[in-house]
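Forgive a beginner's question, but would it be possible to get any protein sequence you like and the tokens describing how it folds?
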Amino acid sequence: MRKLGVGVAATIVALGVASVALAGSSSALLMQYGGVGGQTQDKLAAGQVLGSNAVRSTGTLPFTGIDLALIALAGVVLIMIGWTLRQVAQKQQ
């Protein structure tokens, strides 16, 4: 019961601190993009050029450089770890 109380208290503190940090009006993100979100969205919807990048719609996803085989392998490894932990826990009971 005590661990649950500590966990709830830590969660409340973390959420409280995060909301205060995001409310700052002098953040670099707000100074960079504050107030122009709607204008930028309108330009994108109209297909206008923003800066030096033109809006292109070729119908394919951009190449990110992530090897999907490694992502799949990591997923399989995580599944195997979970299965092994479950087997060990069942043997201990």
